[in-house]
Fold this sequence. Notes:
CATH superfamily of the largest domain in chain A: P-loop containing nucleotide triphosphate hydrolases
Number of strands of chain A: 13
Oligomer: heterotrimer
CATH class of the largest domain in chain A: Alpha Beta
Helix content of chain B: over 70%
Structural class of chain A: alpha/beta
CATH architecture of the largest domain in chain A: 3-Layer(aba) Sandwich
Helix content of chain A: 25-40%
Amino acid sequence: xxxxxxxxxxxxxxxxxxxxxxxxxxxxxxxxxxxxxxxxxxxxxxxxxxxxxxxxxxxxxxxxxxxxxxxxxxxxxxxxxxxxxxxxxxxxxxxxxxxxxxxxxxxxxxxxxxxxxxxxxxxxxxxxxxxxxxxxxxxxxxxxxxxxxxxxxxxxxxxxxxxxxxxxxxxxxxxxxxxxxxxxxxxxxxxxxxxxxxxxxxxxxxxxxxxxxxxxxxxxxxxxxxxxxxxxxxxxxxxxxxxxxxxxxxxxxxxxxxxxxxxxxxxxxxxxxxxxxxxxxxxxxxxxxxxxxxxxxxxxxxxxxxxxxxxxxxxxxxxxxxxxxxxxxxxxxxxxxxxxxxx
Amino acid sequence: xxxxxxxxxxxxxxxxxxxxxxxxxxxxxxxxxxxxxxxxxxxxxxxxxxxxxxxxxxxxxxxxxxxxxxxxxxxxxxxxxxxxxxxxxxxxxxxxxxxxxxxxxxxxxxxxxxxxxxxxxxxxxxxxxxxxxxxxxxxxxxxxxxxxxxxxxxxxxxxxxxxxxxxxxxxxxxxxxxxxxxxxxxxxxxxxxxxxxxxxxxxxxxxxxxxxxxxxxxxxxxxxxxxxxxxxxxxxxxxxxxxxxxxxxxxxxxxxxxxxxxxxxxxxxxxxxxxxxxxxxxx
Amino acid sequence: xxxxxxxxxxxxxxxxxxxxxxxxxxxxxxxxxxxxxxxxxxxxxxxxxxxxxxxxxxxxxxxxxxxxxxxxxxxxxxxxxxxxxxxxxxxxxxxxxxxxxxxxxxxxxxxxxxxxxxxxxxxxxxxxxxxxxxxxxxxxxxxxxxxxxxxxxxxxxxxxxxxxxxxxxxxxxxxxxxxxxxxxxxxxxxxxxxxxxxxxxxxxxxxxxxxxxxxxxxxxxxxxxxxxxxxxxxxxxxxxxxxxxxxxxxxxxxxxxxxxxxxxxxxxxxxxxxxxxxxxxxxxxxxxxxxxxxxxxxxxxxxxxxxxxxxxxxxxxxxxxxxxxxxxxxxxx
Lengths: 343, 283, 333
């Protein structure tokens, strides 16, 4: 996946995941009156088979909500999700556990400890999806499948009888990955899977994920704070801000030539990469995603108020994702993207 | 990190807290007496012997005799079965029904939760003992009705504990992971949430046993529920109460002491039970 | 004279499972005005060390040897009331979880004034003004309004700034920052580190930055000390550490850090895992069991030296010349 001349996966094959105009609103009560939390604001993107996509953005940008819309644990307000040709947006969260495609769209959680039932052994945790969603319910078959995925994820077989609190951080992470991968999903969503791990353990887990992706032919959607990790593991990157995708493109392009002011601030802030963060940092904080029912502000650029460029059009119209000239597959949502100097 | 068996774990728990070991031994003792009591007593519990009435403790009658000449020791031993079975049944009923109601209230919230909690409020608005009295008085004097009254009065307690435990864990990562593994809501509740809500409730079970015994004894003391000449600790204390002033202290003291010992046993056992059922405490 | 001088500090905890040897023979110094990074993974003992310096260790902790001196004053033997005077005024600490450090039922302005009252002679009438000034110094927008706010009304990033304002209100000589930006967004992290760096520059404040993020330490520290299993394994000026790392663990830690790599396959993992610090048979070099350069000599006790700019506690270091040369230079000046 880091070859100098990657084969463009888009050529020929249809997308595995096709998200269009996805919207999620939560009704909230504020001291000023009723409002709506616009967590995901018309997001569209595609994931092709075998790709690793990175999803980055600061806390509160809506990436966790987006992820839960994709895995169908949260209901959709508007928009469509097509997975392998099936329209998943019509499937309610309550029906999803029994849907035939449940096994093919799986997730690895941020906090491996929290995501494992403390009363269930590693073996049973990994076996559960097989028992509920697998085609063969014979114990002998299940046992061999669990052992196979355990070996693939580097989990020694004797650890399978242990409970979560008897496992180290890295071992718990492997159990979480094994459980998600045991049914050979087509798309694996990972929500900050290495955030709680030491850097030496992180390396092992990342290399494991890369290897698994290759050998099992999965697509990955990797949500992370850590841009360095995203850069190494992912082919393409999506940058989210306040519920919208503000930039997307190949990992190297986004890193070396970010065009959106927020992306530039994000990449300049990474320590020890040689950028002077103070040049790019945006003052203040992200505005609230809560729209007051009477005064909706959904139709303006999310960065208005923090951006060094603040023109009339930025306050009136949310910029669409438009291609960046001379950069294949690179799109940015900014009315003045080409006016910023190169990095 | 060696994985231990249940007995290994039990030994470790006992080593950490010696009271638990003592309490467990005493619980075993009470259980044994409850089962084989009637066969090992030296005297017939109902056999009266006017000539021997109100004799103080001696070699023949270890706890003395009561106003009808019955051996108090035998009566106390036999009463163990009655009290223990009342307490166990009542608590089991409360635990199962209350736990289940609380779990569904905590998991689904909304109207289900409101309904269940308001029913609990209704029960809790009465002084517990008064409510128990009312139930037994209305349904009639019998052991079954004591069990029922004790169980009903105790329900809100389990409902609330179960509701909180399930509510707190409802948002846990492993619940979401269970959904992705194909679990329906019911399966999540029964397989994942309720077993995790169990440890905190186990302590309550044992404490409740002590309370249930006291409740049953209290009802019998005032004449509701178990009726004489059947032996039950509460009745025995009642029978002895009027004789304390006249100096026959043993008639009330021994049944009272055994009652107290039983309640202590269950209280100390509570902590040990919780430690045993919580896999996180296993090293 | 160094501002903070730690010599041969060893600390252990009494636990149910035995004695946990948390720190072994730790020595380092912090000069006035310098920022020194204490880098290590979880279990390395870096937080334990920072608490021990300020006398905030858990009740089960026992210091078995060594000394700690702040501005010439012995910290370990000092009575609690002297330490209480020291904390907040001369030496402050900020923590990873800002919400845990702020009193949730007290307004922010009040909490700032408490610190000012305790440690400074600012008149009551002037305290509100100074408190607002502290908030403004941390670039908290709308400080007059925030003065009256409760912590729950603020975002995580703002809470962190408030905590730093509390720590810096009395312009301490030393700031101990224990994972101050872990869990924060990278843009917030950059802003917060800039604030700390600015304060350090303007008041010649020393900073002890404790972190597991090597890249962060590289960007902000003058010198870095690397810790492993309760031992300091290497101390060097920052760029020297990264270009001429001498201890095998340091080299592997740098190799595992994703910054500056082009490929995932370039990252190397550190083999093995931390030894159980409750063992009574811990080897003198606690990294030796995981080390691929292990030799027979490694069983011998490690040198504990604290001279020279670049020190390594290792019997088989990667670049012995580098460290030795510095020690030689230091002794001849």
